[in-house]
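Team,

Forwarding the record for the chain on the shared tracking sheet. I've put the sequence and predicted structure together so nobody has to dig through attachments.
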Amino acid sequence: MTANPALSALPFVLPVLLAGGWATHAVRLYRRLYRIRRDPLTGLLTRDGWSRAAERIIARNSRAVIVLGDLNGFKPVNDDHGHDAGDAVLAAVGQRLADWCGKNDVAGRLGGDEFVAVLHDGQDLNQRLAELAHLVREPVEHQGVTLRVGISLGSARPADLETPTLSAALKAADTAMYQVKGRGRRGRRQFAPALAGVGRRIAGRLRLAA
C-alpha cells in the first residue's frame, strides 16, 4: 500500500506551522504591548511605558531631571470648540514635547492634559523650560479656528531629594507645578511659602500663562 505523501510530510510540516503560529501570536502580542505603552492620540509613552524608561535613566544618571507639565486654558478649548479641538491641541502639544526632548530625553503623557519628561541632564534647565513653554504657546490651527494654550511646569532632580526615587521626584515636581499655578488639584488657592525657600528638594519651576 502506497503511503499518502501529505501524511508522510505531516511530521515535518506540523512543527513549521506551529512555529509560524507562535511567531504570528508573538508579533500580535508585541503590537498590543506597544499600543498599551503608547498613547494613541499623541504617540507619547503612557504612564507605564514612560515610568519604565525614567527609572532606567534615573538609575544610571544622577543629573537626571523630571519635568511635569499641566496645560493652562485647555478646558475652555474643549468647552468652546469641542473635544475634537481639544484632541488637536493635545496632539500638537505631544509632538512639540517630543521634538523638545529630541533623541536623548523621553516624553510621556500621564493622562488628560498632563505631560511629563525625563531629562538626562538638567543643565540650562530654566532656559529649556522657557523654550518648552514658548513651544506650547504657539497657536494650533484646527478647522479654521486658532487655538491657544499655555503650560505650568514643575521640575525636580531625584538625586537632590531625601528619597531619590521616581515617585518622590514626580511628587516634588507636581508640588512645584501646582505652586506655580497657585492652586491645588481641586482648585483651592494655596498659601504655602514660595518653593524657592525649600532649597535643593525641588529643582525648578516656571509658569507661562496662556
